[in-house]
């Protein structure tokens, strides 16, 4: 048997590119002021330390989910080993079929749980990015307004072919953070609290072969 061969550690994904997203926003005074301001959110995030904080938080969550998957995998392996020992070396054809079905069920559930955990990890990454962008927005708007610019566009969106250095407000936004030192969102910091999703994933894979076991 090749139990558990389909299970891998969760992918960390591309570590934060905090600029991803559709629209960053503009100044509330955009109706009376013209011109576009451009900001590199990745540079801002790295410069103020927010990118590292978010990566640390994401790694904490990833580690918890990985551990839950590993515990579930070990539990399923134990169930299969116990059942093999119960049937012994002289297992009947029917019992062998039952073991094979248990193994298939276990592997399918492990793959399903790993995919679910990966999706949870990506959802958390997107949530933290959205929090960061919301945190940057008022600072960027203020800096743009001081230059008489009404709309702020992230440089990271990929549709800008060229940027006039005169409208790039990245350095000024970083400087504004150094002056005001806004508080980072609590949810973006590493947490030692239990992660419900991890427990849910562990429960899912630990019970994956139960139906077949009880037959």
Layout of strands and helices, then pairs:
Layout: E1 25-26, E2 36-39, H1 41-47, H2 50-87, H3 93-146, E3 151-154, H4 170-180, H5 196-206, H6 210-213
Parallel strand pairs: 2-3
Antiparallel strand pairs: 1-3
Explain how this protein is built.
The protein is mainly α and 215 residues long. It has one domain. It is 58% helix and 5% strand. The protein has 6 helices and 3 strands, in the order E-E-H-H-H-E-H-H-H. The chain has helices spanning 41-47, 50-87, 93-146, 170-180, 196-206, 210-213, and strands at 25-26, 36-39, 151-154. Helix 1 (41-47) runs parallel beside helix 4 (170-180), helix 2 (50-87) runs parallel beside helix 5 and helix 3 packs antiparallel against helix 5 (196-206).
């Amino acid at each position: 048997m090749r139990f558990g061969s389909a299970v891998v550690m969760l992918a960390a994904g591309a570590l934060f590119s905090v600029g991803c997203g559709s629209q960053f926003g503009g100044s509330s005074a955009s109706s009376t002021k013209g011109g576009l301001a451009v900001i590199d959110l990745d540079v801002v995030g790295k410069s103020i330390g927010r990118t590292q904080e978010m990566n640390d938080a994401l790694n904490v969550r990833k580690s918890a989910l990985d551990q839950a998957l590993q515990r579930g995998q070990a539990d399923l392996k134990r169930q299969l080993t116990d059942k093999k020992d119960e049937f012994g070396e002289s297992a009947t054809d029917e019992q062998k079929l039952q073991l094979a079905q248990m193994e298939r069920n276990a592997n399918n559930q492990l793959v399903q749980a790993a995919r679910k955990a990966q999706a949870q990890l990506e959802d958390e990454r997107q949530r933290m990015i959205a929090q960061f962008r919301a945190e940057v927005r008022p600072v960027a708007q203020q800096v743009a307004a001081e230059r008489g610019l009404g709309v702020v566009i992230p440089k990271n969106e990929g549709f800008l072919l060229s940027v006039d250095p005169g409208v790039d407000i990245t350095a000024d936004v970083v400087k504004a953070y150094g002056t005001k030192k806004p508080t980072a969102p609590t949810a973006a910091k590493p947490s030692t609290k239990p992660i419900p999703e991890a427990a849910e994933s562990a429960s899912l894979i630990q019970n994956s072969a139960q139906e077949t076991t009880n037959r």
